Amino acid sequence: MIFGSLVALATPLQTKSLDIDWAALATLVDWHVDQGTNGIVAVGTTGESATLNIDEHEAVIRCVVERAAGRIPVIAGTGANCTREALALTKAAKQAGADACLLVTPYYNKPTQEGLYQHYRTIAEGVDIQQILYNVPGRTACDMALETVLRLTECDNIIGIKDATGDLRRGEEIIRQSCAGFAVYSGDDATARELMLLGGNGNISVTANVAPALMTTMCAAALRGDALQAERADAALQALHSGLFVESNPIPVKWALAQMGLMDDALRLPLTPLAASNHAVVLSAMRQAKIQLKNNL
Question: Residue 157 pLDDT more than 80?
Answer without folding.
Answer: yes
